[in-house]
Design brief:
Elements: E1 3-7, E2 10-12, E3 18-25, E4 37-43, E5 47-54, E6 61-63, E7 71-76, E8 81-86, E9 95-101, E10 106-107, E11 111-115
Parallel strand pairs: 2-11
Antiparallel strand pairs: 1-3, 3-8, 4-5, 4-9, 5-6, 7-8, 9-10, 9-11
Length: 117
């Protein structure tokens, strides 16, 4: 059974930065490197939405417009780890952030990000 564990959330002031990590384990028939990965976030205003995607190999990425230019998704397959670098954080970025693989229908437990002065 695949497990995804997010970390790195916390309280930060507007304009600040955080880096989220997601460590994957439990792959049986394939490896982390063989899966596209996603970051989702759940906010009171918009519910659950996908905010970033990265393909196998890390050569292509996608961002929702609201985070484009501020967030960067990346992966280190040798460490089975997915990252989300978040810069210039805004209060509307407050929410719970999840690491997700749609192929395996697996989502982590999430990490809370609160942006407030």
């Amino acid at each position: 059974e695949v497990h995804l564990v997010e970390s790195g959330g916390g309280l930060v002031q507007p304009g600040g930065s955080l880096r989220l990590s997601c460590t994957a384990s439990g792959f049986t028939f394939s490896n982390f490197k063989n899966y596209d990965m996603n970051w989702e976030r759940q906010t009171p205003g918009k519910g659950l939405e996908r905010i970033a995607w990265i393909n196998v190999g890390g050569t292509s990425t996608y961002y929702v417009d609201s985070v484009k230019g501020r967030f960067t998704i990346s992966r280190v397959d040798a460490k089975n780890t997915l990252y989300l670098q978040m810069n210039d954080l805004k209060e509307e970025d407050t929410g719970k952030y999840y690491c997700v693989t749609y192929t395996l229908s697996t989502r982590g437990q999430g990490t809370q990000v609160t942006v407030s002065s």
